[in-house]
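[09:14] KT: can someone run the structure on this one? pasting the chain below
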Amino acid sequence: MIDINYPRPYLRRSEFVSLNGLWNISIEDCDKNLKYQGKIEVPYAIETKTSGVNLLFEENDVAFYRKKFNIDLNEQERLIINFIAVDQVSEVFINDNKVGTHEGGYTPFSFDITDFVKKGSNELLVVVKDSTDKGIYSYGKQKFKRGGIWYTPSSGIVQDVFLEVVPKNYIKDIKFITDIDKKELKILVKSDESLPYSIEFEDMVLNGFSNQEEIFIFDKIHLWSVEDPFLYHAKVKLGLDIVETYFSFRKIERVICEKETYLALNHKRIFLSGVLDQGYYSCGYTAKNKTEYFRDIKVLKDMGFNTIRKHIKLEHPLFYYLCDKLGMLVIQDFINGGDEYKFTIVKLPLFTSQHRDDTQYRKFGRENQEGRAFFLKESCEIIDILNNHPSVIIYTIFNEGWGQFDSKKMTSYLSVKDNTRLYDSTSGWHDRGAGDFRSFHVYFKKFKLRKDKTKRAYILSEFGGYGLKIDGHTFNNHNFGYKKMKNKKFLTDAFEKLYLREVVPQIKNGLVGAIYTQIADVEDELNGIMTFDREIIKIDPKRVRSINELIYKTIREIDLK
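[09:31] RB: done, structure tokens below
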């Protein structure tokens, strides 16, 4: 069984050294004037109270994180430093020696620091810059001018930092690709040198060589599903290195018939009843306690939901492991970037349904070629990072025109890179006819399924957004929501009516999924199922579960016809 306390559950060693906790930090402005000096609690963003700093990190500021650690290696060991996320550009130094640079605030990275450490005390320095929404990098929903649906920036070291002592030849990564029809398992173990390895799980032992794809055929397989999220827990040995990991067998597909198009998981029709998850907590970008991931998933499972749309953020690895383990499907958004968004592009289509040509870079704030290239690079990294997670079934490439460009080309390229998932090319609007879905966002009018001539599946990828303010459980005094409710009963009644009038009737017309906005309040937004601090559930869970049971019953009845 994988230890959920390990920062990287899909590639776990028996020991690691966490560097979370108090670090020294100094922050300078663009003129190298000292803005702050003191302690910071890693891994919380500079802008949060939890970090101990609570300071807006501006475009040209530079943060200097310092931490001392002790180490004693033998000649056959290597020391690896791992960062889950540092927002936005980071340079890493050991004892005044630069060991590497990483660009982008969402993806994990590692450096081999063996040649820079010495026996005993060592000093780690991480130099961080963050231009938030002013540079070429992806920034998601962070903005210097926060408000409404845009949130306070989250700068600096915002996820775990940890050290691992590994043998000279060690396992760098493991990739699994499964085929339920062929009962086939493909394995790629990555290391510096091509070496023999073994993988043990249940009563089986498979052998192969690293850096080359190995294919194994099973007599029988245990499928992963929402109802039965079965994982093959495995131990991989390469020389002296041993890691624990897991894999699974599942298949997601868009099934095209003469009269309908639907989604199937393991060849069985499925409806995606889910909730939008911004990935923000009371401590900002970072969950204060990792049990928050478990609690969020469990709350939704208990209500009968089977899907989470992780919105414009790559989450901590533990989140995806828990979705794998608990049987929660994930729609994963890529991270938007680009220049300032125009009203005519990102807001007006909500009312007009007007679609624009996204090869017009200027209109979409995508004239910067370097920024477009970075978006593609980071999206490919996200696909690689999430490869092994059976819960991740759909990638959202662009959302509501935010930094959108060349969606047809992007969808074609990314869907070839990973053809085991489905793709929502343009969630909301500016649809160019690409991808697996015709994707709707509906807030201010009654949802009515508008079919087109393609064989894409129809998904309501955002809707609802009903707001309820619970005094004493808010971020501030703002009250943003698409429709304001008086109390919990009014909210539950309105939620039930929304589903019974606009979701359930559309299933027989081809609707394959509905994603309600949203799991919890975030800053100004009070349209969560839970409050900002997650202390109160605003909607009656039993009535929500009854609605979801009706949805799944409707799907079963369609299958019987």
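[09:33] KT: thanks! The mean pLDDT is 95.
[09:34] RB: yep, looked fine to me
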